[in-house]
Amino acid sequence: MSKEKFDYFVNGEKGKYEVVIGLEVHAQVLSNSKLFSGSSTKFGADPNKQVSLIDSAFPGMLPVINEECVKQAVRTGLGLNAKINNYSVFDRKNYFYADLPQGYQISQYKNPIVGEGKVLLDMPYGSKEIGIERLHLEQDAGKSIHDMDPASTYVDLNRSGIALMEIVSKPDLRSPDEVNAYIKKLRTIMRYLGTCDGNMQEGSLRADVNVSVRKVGDKNFGTRCEIKNVNSIKFMQMAIEYEANRQVELIEDGKEIDQETRLFDTKKNETRSMRSKEDAHDYRYFPDPDLLPLKLEQKLIDDLKKSLPELPDNKKDRFIQEYGLNSYEANVLVSEKEISDYYEEVAKLSDKKLAATWMMGDLFAMLNDKGLNIYNSPISAKDFAELVQSIKSGEISGRIAKEVFEIMVESGDNPKKIIESKGMKQQSDPKELEKMINEILSKNKDKVDQYKAGKEKLFGFFVGQVMKLSGGKANPQLTNEILKKLLKG
Amino acid sequence: MSNITSQSLSEILESIKSKQISSLELTQAYIKNIENAKKLNSFVTTTFDQALENAKKFDNKTNNEQLLSGIPLAVKDLFCTENVKTTAGSNILNNFIPSYESTVTKNLWNNGAFLLGKLNCDEFAMGSSNETSFFGNVINPVGDHLVPGGSSGGSSSALAADLTPATIGTDTGGSIRQPASFTGTVGLKPTYGLCSRWGIVAFASSLDQAGPMTKTVNDCSIMLEAMSGFDEKDSTSINKKKETYSKNLNDNIKGLKIGIPKEYRVDNMPKEIDDLWEKGKKILKDLGAHLIDISLPHTKYALPTYYIVAPAEASSNLARYDGVRYGYRSQKGKDLIEMYENTRSEGFGDEVKRRILIGTYVLSSGYYDAYYLKAQKVRQLIKKDFDDSFMKVDAILTPSTPNSAFKIGEKTNDPVSMYLNDIFTVPVNLAGLPALSLPAGLDKKGLPLGLQLIGKALDEQKILNIGYAFEKNCGYKNKIKKWWS
């Protein structure tokens, strides 16, 4: 595959600018209960139904760390090839807001649970490594609902206290496409690990996006702006695009860029200043005296490491080695754990290469069409493998296979049964085919003569007639061979 | 049994056990005392009906083998009590009724005791004289113009006035020991983590510790045994086997080494405090203990360190009182921010506001390193001073306070002189150690004075033993006349 060149720059009148992007991704930890309380974390409950005395900060209530959330953070750190810190500290981040009952968020400031790591992206111009600065655990806040009543704000504390992992990247991203690839890769890794469901609609994955620009070739970073709480990849890309252009315009006009926090308005497709650096909160971080420092024994980390599932990068390498796939195919098939599981089940029972082609073609198109996912595919991996095998063995042709596939989707029947009951089996008996072809040749003597006189284009006509007569079931390869032989004679 | 209420908890327990008196009679006797002592203002809430019910229930049971069988107890109003108003001495919680019971009080009830009422205290336990309470100041039974100490001033007053057979307080910088010293009672601040903080209205989380306040050392050991214990709901709780302090109480202290820290002889310390200390040393020496001069060189930094760490934690702990979910809410203000501001301005008193301001300041960016971080480092040095000394000695003897109970209003306009009252008690909280204040004598005005025994972490038994021996040989007698009834 020929490699494309990286080409994402903002062209100003006075030069070409590179866009520098860093992400702070907030990923909701998959766990049954909250980070410091026993309340349920299930999505979609009625407001304020999953709130304990701790989550609502009643007097004298104390946080107790949920071990499962700690393990999930360690697993994620391991999946990001990151350093796990044996010693980390929970701090209080102090600010007043109606959906923050304690008046502070418990987070990790100076000593996060996970340190530096890296993530590999497959870009059209080659693979690119994105550095991870840190990952820390923190509590989510509740939700303020401003649009239910014109005069009041309602507060739902169901989310208050749910564990989040904040994954901070280094400023290594350079384009909206890389951001797309990065978020998807993070999500894939966390889904493989089972540490975050990555569901952006439900808010399980959101990001603060840091954007700055600099002239191509400059060594120093420009002043950055932080776009808060963007909850879809599309919006992130739009926000970056807008923000990069806004900054370039400012620079070209000889104006300063203020380091500030901005909001992305999804309706107007623009970013707006939320607060400047001067108005930035003083969070008065200090170690939470209700919680002892978190000390992880190396054995726990080692045990978690041993129990990690195979991760997408490793699986991709294995798919190339073991199944003879190319890099593109392997990439697509490991992009979600369920897809890779499905593929491996199919590949075990059928031709590996053909299985990949058919999965990425007809199966994905059908799922996409119906808005389904691989885990609720109407065709089981076993049936799909049978279909692939029928093609491979020559039992049916590729064209017939498409028909069988359609019927499988409609009826849910197994391909063998469909082929049998509908008589769709390929005609591969040379004697039968010869009989059929002779019949066609004798009916079309004039065309045979023209062919023999040199009009070789007519070969296709004869093939078409065979197909028509056989109801499309004639083995195309054998048909070709026999036709050639008989036309010569 | 008209004078049952003047007896010690252990004597009362004997009377209950031998059925000389019923729990109901006992409870009625205390209720009578409390009703006659309204002038002291030591109670914020009484739970008489509930107490009488519980006493009757107890009398109908045959099992009285528990540690506190049939004992009515009043507790500091900082402990959350299920369905009973819990105010922390503050307007901002003056209508707050918890749906839960603090671990420490639950432990008491599980040992057979029941609630008699909630005792006044300084607002959010911030004070040394019980004058910062929204519910008014408490009077020391020792004299009607005197403060009972603080912040557990309602507790010390009620105990000394025979309004409860024993009680519990909390001690963040001396809030059990100083009031005990001012009222001639026994007060113990246990090792940090020995008693659960769950369900106690927080002041400064890394310093707060609940402890018993009693008439005798034996009573103190009984109460400690009942209230302490590991609690998985408090992450700073120490997971260790429960001890039987009262059963193991032993007055043989021969050969024990008692440290005498030179830094506790502070400038301008009244001679009578020095004399009291000398008296204490002599008693222990006569009992066969060895006195050893030690040095705790960072003692002089303890008070400033404390007044950075405690307000810092308090400023954050008190952020939850915003009028949104419970407690007092101001009706004034046009938006959320104004509602917060008005609620907190009207809900908190001056001393609480002062400490929130100090705490917010020392945590602010640009000041954090100079104040909070430095204070944490000094705190480590103070702790290390004690660790080093405890390589050489079994316990440390110091005065509990630099003076006896002062007059109501005497120090209210001078916060620093008020803070100085905690000069001998504060280092112990910073180091997380146990310390016992014992009544040891009277000053020339006839007011009680206390001595403090500081122990190693989790060495409560040893300081209780030394205190037990001391008590037997000190001959201290409370001279409280019931002038208020």
Tell me what you see in this structure:
Chain A folds into three domains: 296 residues, no CATH class; 112 residues, no CATH class; 59 residues, Arc Repressor Mutant, subunit A (Orthogonal Bundle), CATH 1.10.10. Chain A has 15 helices and 16 strands. In chain A, the strands form four sheets. In chain A, strands 1, 2, 6, 7, 10, 11, 12, 13 and 14 form a nine-stranded mixed beta sheet that branches. A three-stranded antiparallel beta sheet of chain A has the order 5-4-15, with no helix packed on it. Chain B has a domain of 254 residues: Amidase signature (AS) domain (Amidase signature (AS) enzymes), CATH 3.90.1300.10. Chain B has 15 helices and eleven strands. In chain B, helix 2 runs antiparallel to helix 3 and helix 9 packs across helix 12. The chains are: A alpha+beta (489), B alpha/beta (485). Chains A and B meet through loops of A and helix 9 and helix 10 of B.
Topology (SSEs and partners):
The complex is a heterodimer of chains A (489) and B (485).
Chain A: E1 10-11, E2 16-28, H1 67-79, E3 87-88, E4 91-94, E5 104-107, E6 117-123, E7 126-139, E8 143-145, E9 154-156, E10 163-169, H2 176-193, E11 205-215, E12 225-230, H3 233-252, E13 260-265, E14 270-276, E15 286-287, E16 294-295, H4 298-306, H5 312-323, H6 327-334, H7 337-349, H8 352-370, H9 381-392, H10 398-411, H11 415-421, H12 430-443, H13 445-452, H14 459-470, H15 476-488
Parallel strand pairs in A: 12-13
Antiparallel strand pairs in A: 1-2, 2-10, 2-11, 3-16, 4-5, 4-15, 6-7, 7-10, 8-9, 11-12, 13-14
Chain B: H1 9-17, H2 23-36, E1 43-46, H3 48-60, E2 72-76, H4 103-110, E3 114-119, H5 153-160, E4 167-170, H6 177-183, E5 186-189, E6 210-214, H7 217-227, E7 257-261, H8 271-286, E8 290-294, H9 302-317, H10 336-347, H11 350-363, H12 369-389, E9 395-399, H13 415-419, H14 426-431, E10 435-442, E11 448-455, H15 460-474
Parallel strand pairs in B: 2-3, 7-8, 7-9
Antiparallel strand pairs in B: 1-3, 4-6, 5-6, 5-10, 9-11, 10-11
Helix pairs in contact in B: 2-3, 5-6, 7-15, 9-11, 9-12
